[in-house]
Amino acid sequence: MALTLYTNPMSRGRIARWMLEEVGVAYEAVILDYAASMKDDAYLAVNPMGKVPAIVHDGKVVTEGAAICCYLADTFSEAGLAPTDAERADYYRWMFYAAGPVEAAVTNRSLGVVPSAEQQRMVGYGSYEAVVDTFAGAVAAHPFLAGDRFTAADVYAGSQVIWGVQFGSLPKLPVFEDYVARVTTRDAYKRAAAIDDALMAPKG
């Protein structure tokens, strides 16, 4: 089965690469740059948004980091990253909490957008502080987001925590730092990070 990852090492494409390394299937990586190839006709035919990551698996396109994680977990179920019946509620809840409220709250805060008390009723995430408190509670409840076992939810939501703590978009709470320490010990994470870090290294 042909599987291609479209990515950039300084992007959310790192999430998809980590997930691909977790499922352990062969894939081709196409590295795109922001200035040109991400917006050219060839890639826009894959993702009209001109954003990464995207994967193409046997001719089928999947975009959006959370969707890619879910798709790969389900398609390559032998990797054991999809939820069991007991894990499914927390798995989907926190996977899409990270993709929705966390992503929106962190992005708005970085842009200097702070909803007023009245606007918070209209904004899906309410307030940045509420998002952080809720996310911290989810991370603290179990060793991993769906329970005692690492799943694809920890790839996606874990990436949000890793970057948030590293770049300051999330506070360096002990519960976040402990969670980062757990998920970054995984061999697949280390392989994926090494690949993307090497691509970011100065040439020559």
Explain what the structure shows.
Helix content is 50%, strand content 8%. It has 204 residues and is an alpha+beta fold. Strand 3 (54-57) and strand 4 form a beta hairpin. Helix 1 packs across helix 8 (187-200) and helix 4 runs parallel beside helix 6 (152-167). The longest helix has 23 residues, at 88-110. The protein is globular and about 45 Å long. The N and C termini lie far apart (35 Å). The mean pLDDT is 97.
The total strand number stands at: 4
Q: Helicity level, as a percent range?
A: 40-55%
What is the total domain count? 2
Mean pLDDT: 97
Shape-level CATH architecture of the largest domain: Up-down Bundle
Overall form: globular
Radius of gyration: 17 Å
Annotate the secondary structure layout.
Blueprint: E1 3-7, H1 13-23, E2 28-31, H2 41-44, E3 54-57, E4 60-63, H3 65-75, H4 88-110, H5 128-141, H6 152-167, H7 174-183, H8 187-200
Parallel strand pairs: 1-2
Antiparallel strand pairs: 1-3, 3-4
Keywords for this entry:
204 residues, alpha+beta, Glutaredoxin, Glutathione S-transferase Yfyf (Class Pi), Chain A, domain 2, four-stranded mixed sheet, globular
Structure summary:
The protein is 50% helix and 8% strand. It has 204 residues and is an alpha+beta fold. The chain folds into 2 domains: 3-80, 3-Layer(aba) Sandwich (Glutaredoxin); 88-188, Glutathione S-transferase Yfyf (Class Pi), Chain A, domain 2, CATH 1.20.1050.
